Amino acid sequence: MNNSKPKVAFICVHNSCRSQMAEALGKHFASDVFESYSAGTEMKAQINQDAVRLIKVIYLIDMEATQRPKLLTDIPNVDIVIKMGCNVICPFLPSKHEEDWGLEDPSDKSDEEFRIIIAKIEEKIKALAEKIKTNKLNRVKKN
């Protein structure tokens, strides 16, 4: 592998909530390790406003300043695909490595529910960065 950073796509159906938060936190915590993108198969007009508000409160990141809902076709080819956890059929994107984080969609739920999902995303972003840094990605395949 060359020295360019792997590209990671965080995907779910609408690209308005979990995948957007993952993109923001990926950029925030792991921009030295990988490039973060998010996308979906359908597009909402804007990022979930509770997600925007809470990411601003917790991390002082304004997602609306740098991010917008995007379709899978709007992002470059990626090396790693992270599915947020779709109860419906998750979108497919070709990649060298894929994980499903199985996160509940906190849309229309309480701030507390949002904070739980946000904390899980932060934890998983840091774990993914660590796996990439230590070249453990190829060993994560399930038997």
Automatic annotation (TrEMBL):
All residue ranges annotated as the Phosphotyrosine protein phosphatase I domain in the record: 6-131
InterPro entries reported for this sequence: Ptyr_pPase (IPR023485), Ptyr_pPase_sf (IPR036196)
Gene Ontology process terms (BP): response to arsenic-containing substance
SMART domains in the record: LMWPc (SM00226)
Entry keyword set: Arsenical resistance
Name this polypeptide is given: Arsenate reductase ArsC
Organismal lineage: Bacteria, Bacillati, Bacillota, Clostridia, Eubacteriales
